[in-house]
Design brief:
4-stranded antiparallel beta sheet, 10 helices
């Protein structure tokens, strides 16, 4: 269960994500339905399932389910900012069967670990310069494979497709006579990465420990080379910035997870691409796909979801901005977001909708560092109540 605690001006959870993204939005919608004192027009409340794992509910939204003209999306993470656009996205998932070999004689195995990275949302945080644990692990092994005759038994990093991976491990073997030197090189690499990312990764951790149960099989050398060439070569992070909205990331890719199925001798690599320009989203996915194909991976794409093109002339936007001004005597920011919202799918099925999205301030979503700023919840609620009163 989620165990919440107050930490100064924030609400956090113990050991898990808080779930305020977007539980706080659902709570606000339910509060509107329950409060008989509020002034508002006829209301439809839309709750969707599996938004974070594939937008399943939004994809299932059928024609004729909604009759409203205005949609207020309660799934944003920055109080004082009103969103009128978002990126579309697509997942590119690659699998490869690999050959195994018997462990060479005289080899010793260790477990390499990378942890305590900040991670975060693969859309909203992709431009913050944070490290990707899968990239770091591949980077080290790429440099070490020839010098130390490395063999690989297992590798695992990341979990959610829409989260920057925070941790990774690899179980590798080297000649026992070179084990000590290998461990020193790994820790030296860790120190080098800490220096490289010192401005964005304050808690980065590298560790190495002996493996109690020695593997009997390892990935073939050819397949290991293909894997490392792929992981090092995959584009990751910001691929392009928007000229239409300066400061907005237009296109990006995230190397989300690397999973070994040692029983079936299969590797699965999950990536996700985002863009506010549909053609750029397609090209980004093709770029990722081509790197996988060169190494013999089988590639599949998800159905993807469309972006939400901004409509600065929207009457709903005008009313929302004016309500914010009147309530708080300050000007809200109107912007688009690189993260994916369900609004693109809503608009695809109901093209007449005018939409805005806003919420309280959240940080560290999709990670155990997720936190909700308490003071912003009251402002979020007041803006929602006032906007509903003003909608004709």
């Amino acid at each position: 269960p989620i165990r919440t605690r107050i930490d100064g001006e924030w609400v956090r959870a113990e050991g898990t994500t808080l779930g305020a993204d977007c539980g706080i939005g659902m709570a606000a919608a339910l509060a509107v339905l329950l409060d008989e004192t509020l002034e508002h027009p006829a209301i439809e409340a839309l709750f969707t399932v599996d938004e974070e794992t594939g937008l399943t509910g939004a994809f299932g939204l059928g024609e004729g389910m909604l009759t409203g003209k205005y949609l207020v999306n309660l799934d944003s993470e920055d109080e004082g900012e009103i969103f009128i656009g978002c990126a579309g996205g697509i997942d590119t998932v690659a699998t490869m069967d690999y050959e195994t070999e018997t462990v060479p004689e005289g080899y010793a195995f260790v477990r390499l670990e990378i942890g305590d990275l900040l991670g975060g949302h693969s859309g909203d945080d992709i431009d913050k310069g944070r490290a990707n644990s899968n990239k770091l692990m591949a980077r080290f092994l790429y440099n070490a494979i020839d010098k130390f005759q490395v063999v690989l038994a297992e590798m695992d990093g990341g979990n959610l497709r829409n989260a920057i991976p925070r941790e990774a491990y690899a179980i590798v073997g080297v000649p026992a006579t070179e084990k000590e030197d290998f461990e020193e090189r790994y820790l030296e690499f860790g120190q080098m990465m800490m220096e490289e990312f010192k401005h964005t990764e304050p808690r980065m951790r590298f560790a190495v420990e002996d493996v109690e149960k020695q593997p009997t099989k390892v990935m073939s050398n050819d397949d290991l080379c293909y894997l490392l060439l792929t992981l090092v070569g995959l584009p990751n992070g910001v691929l392009g910035m928007s000229f239409a909205m300066p400061g907005l990331v237009e296109t990006s890719s995230n190397l989300a997870s690397v999973k070994f199925d040692t029983e079936n001798e299969e590797i699965k690599v999950t990536t996700s691409q985002r863009s506010s320009v549909e053609s750029a989203k397609l090209y980004a996915s093709q770029t990722i796909e081509s790197v996988f194909f060169l190494s013999g991976f089988d590639v599949e794409h998800s159905d993807g979801y469309p972006g939400w093109a901004p409509n600065p002339e929207s009457k709903l936007l005008t009313e929302t901005v004016q309500a914010y001004r009147d309530l708080f005597a300050t000007e809200p920011k109107v912007r688009a977001i690189h993260a994916g919202l369900e609004c693109g799918l809503f608009l695809e099925k109901y093209p007449h909708l005018e939409m805005v999205s806003f919420g309280p301030t959240l940080r560290g979503v999709h990670s155990p560092d997720e936190r909700l700023e308490i003071a912003t919840v009251d402002k979020f609620w007041k803006l929602l109540v006032e906007l509903l009163k003003r909608i004709d």
